[in-house]
Automatic annotation (TrEMBL):
General function of this protein: Acts on leucine, isoleucine and valine.
Name of this protein: Probable branched-chain-amino-acid aminotransferase
Catalytic activity from the UniProt record: L-isoleucine + 2-oxoglutarate = (S)-3-methyl-2-oxopentanoate + L-glutamate; L-valine + 2-oxoglutarate = 3-methyl-2-oxobutanoate + L-glutamate; L-leucine + 2-oxoglutarate = 4-methyl-2-oxopentanoate + L-glutamate
Any Pfam family the entry gives: Aminotran_4
Keywords, in A-Z order: Amino-acid biosynthesis, Aminotransferase, Branched-chain amino acid biosynthesis, Pyridoxal phosphate, Transferase
Organism name: Puniceibacterium antarcticum
Family: Belongs to the class-IV pyridoxal-phosphate-dependent aminotransferase family.
Signal peptide limits: none
Length: 279
């Protein structure tokens, strides 16, 4: 692969970052994952906007303007002849002596981008649906910022796996927050789409926004509010959304089968429509 590091295009083995980088020492970095399908960027505007927001919330400076950022995304796709997969972008506060105090503002940030090939269209999970385990949300309190602090989501996913589930749905104060790396949604028995309202408790999913818009345009009633694990267990359908998974049905929550245990009709429709509008 050809990767991007601070303005340079390099073979992946030649791209080196200092052990003093604050991403490495402090988790002081943000990231974005943008999906590529048919060589095209999906929902790019949303990912670029969220990247800028994450940066500004942490006082990080993105060294590329809008045109240069878009150009870098197109260039990494072209250089890697990418058809289907993802672009990972990470911005850290740069290299500095280990210190809890941020380094001076003029410290050059570290910006890296790489690609990962993945057949995003043919996703077995989308056909069978996934099972989720409900686990406490023990992440920090600013989940609206897409930081690289992914240890707890990773641990939660491992715990879910050890319980025989595919993923975790996290809950806090009696309400579901998110999946380990995706947005959680349910369809009630009377056909309303319930998804948590945006706050510091969860990431503002870019796919979430697109799918809500799509659902709205198809006359599906949407309730943006927190829902409980009990509501999830009683739901007619459940699903997750994320950049590279689009819409994936959830067919089991802990030991409770959702609907008839097969991907729900509305969920499948939203997946097909999402893919169709992106192509
Ligand atoms: N994860 N919530 C969390 C905690 C996430 O990590 C993600 C994305 C989402 C969905 O956001 P979007 O629809 O914008 O991808 C929600 C990415 C894909 C990842 O970490 O790999």
């Amino acid at each position: 692969r050809t990767v991007y590091l601070n303005g340079k295009w390099l073979p992946e083995d030649a791209a080196k970052v200092s052990i003093f980088d604050r991403a490495f020492l402090m988790g002081d970095a943000i990231y974005e994952v943008t999906c590529v399908l048919d060589g095209m960027l999906l929902d790019y505007a949303g990912h670029a906007a969220r990247l800028r927001r994450s940066a500004s919330e942490l006082g990080l400076t993105l060294p590329l303007d809008d045109d240069a950022l878009l150009k870098a995304h197109h260039e990494i796709v072209a250089r890697n002849q990418m058809q289907s997969g993802l672009i990972y972008l990470q911005l850290s506060r740069g290299v500095a002596e280990r210190d809890f105090v941020f380094p001076p503002k003029d410290t050059p940030p570290t910006l890296v981008m790489f690609t990962q090939a993945k057949d995003v269209l043919n996703n077995r999970a989308a056909e069978t649906g996934i099972s989720v385990a409900l686990l406490p949300d023990l992440r920090w309190g600013r989940r609206d910022i897409k930081t690289v602090q992914l240890l707890y989501p990773s641990m939660a996913k491992m715990e879910a796996r050890s319980r025989g589930a595919d993923d975790a749905w996290l809950h806090e104060d009696g309400f579901v927050t998110e999946a380990s790396s995706a947005t959680a949604h349910i369809i009630t028995t009377d056909g309303r789409l319930v998804t948590r309202d945006l706050s510091h408790a969860l990431l503002a999913g870019v796919t979430r926004a697109s799918v809500l818009e799509l659902a709205q345009s198809h006359g599906i009633e949407i309730e943006e509010r927190a829902f409980t694990p009990d509501e999830a267990r009683a739901a007619r359908e459940a699903f997750i959304t994320s950049a590279t998974n689009f819409v994936v049905p959830v067919v089991r929550v802990d030991d409770v089968v959702i609907g008839d245990g097969h991907p729900g009709a509305l969920t499948q429709q939203l997946r097909q429509q999402y893919i169709a509008t992106q192509r």
